């Protein structure tokens, strides 16, 4: 059976933590930042955990299924 290929788009967007969770960067930090509160910018700049219902699909795209 051939090796499972990694989807390059998923590799650029997601990261797997040592505990197996999937982390991603939230959207909305590219432009129009002067209109945003500092609290909102700090919230968006943190990496977030992916919801458990999406984790299985993303891990498969990364070849870690």
Summary, kept brief:
The chain is α+β, with helices and mostly antiparallel strands and 65 residues long. It has helices at 8-13, 38-45, 52-61, and strands spanning 14-16, 22-25, 47-49. The mean pLDDT is 95.
Number of separate strands: 3
Q: Please tell me the overall pLDDT.
A: 95
Biggest beta-sheet profile: 3 strands, antiparallel
State the secondary-structure class: alpha+beta
Task: Give the overall shape.
Answer: elongated
SSE order, one letter for each helix or strand: HEEHEH
Number of domains: 1
| Beta-strand content | 15-25%
* Name of the CATH first level: Few Secondary Structures
Give a structural overview.
By secondary structure, this protein is α+β, with helices and mostly antiparallel strands. It has a single domain (8-61), classed as Factor Xa Inhibitor (Irregular), CATH 4.10.410. Helices cover 37% and strands 15% of the residues. The chain has helices at 8-13, 38-45, 52-61; strands at residues 14-16, 22-25, 47-49. Strands 1-2-3 form a 3-stranded antiparallel beta sheet. A hairpin with a 5-residue loop joins strand 1 and strand 2. The model has no long low-confidence stretch (mean pLDDT 95).
């Amino acid at each position: 059976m051939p090796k499972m290929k990694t989807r390059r788009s998923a590799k650029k967007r997601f990261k797997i933590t040592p505990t197996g969770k999937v982390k991603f960067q939230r959207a909305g930090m590219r432009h129009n930042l002067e209109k945003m509160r500092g609290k909102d910018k700090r919230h968006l700049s943190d990496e977030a955990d992916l919801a458990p219902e999406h984790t299985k699909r993303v891990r498969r795209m990364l070849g870690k299924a």
